[in-house]
Amino acid sequence: MEKKTVKKKLVLKKSVRRILNHLLLTTIIFLVGLILVKDNPPLKKQISENIYEKSFKFTKAKQLYDKYFGSILSIDKIVQEEQPVFDEKLAYSKKSTYKDGVALTVTENYMVPNLESGIVIFIGEKEGYGNTVIVEQIDGIDVFYSNIEAANLKLYDYVEKGELLGETKDDKLYLVFYKDGKYLNYKDYI
Q1: Which has the least CB within 10 A, 14, 88, 116, 130?
Q2: Looking at the structure, do residues 101 and 74 belong to the same domain, yes or no?
Q3: Residue 89 in domain
Q4: Do 183 and 144 touch, CB atoms closer than 8 A?
């Protein structure tokens, strides 16, 4: 019994030591970064422009974090075992080019599924499209879902593939695919 208790204490000490080492290393890297930025005005300007003038890609940051540090939540396995209530695929009867994307003919009050997992980066009105939800997908593509009433979504919510985004206001759903400053051909994605 004593050997097991001692072994558990050693494992716990190693885990605590590892966490403290990670925190110390992160703090050192952060402080060195601050010093470099302070002493280098061109670098400071470049960082400022990238943060305040360009769109920050949350999904890329999440992928990097998961790759090097693992998942943020320790309960991921429990959450992944749950099955979603709404898990649908996109269904439409007709499609036609509309402005920078596509207009899909769907049923009245069609329940709109998310095409790929990502983060909600916009909820609001877009000129010519109506009420719009923009999801930045894991692959870095921003998808505009327009002419819909958002269903209990908030800015920066993470939405899974197939999850309900909202209902169309009538029988039209507008989709636009956008990446790196360019509108993409919808035919490659639906």
Answers
A1: 14
A2: no
A3: no
A4: no
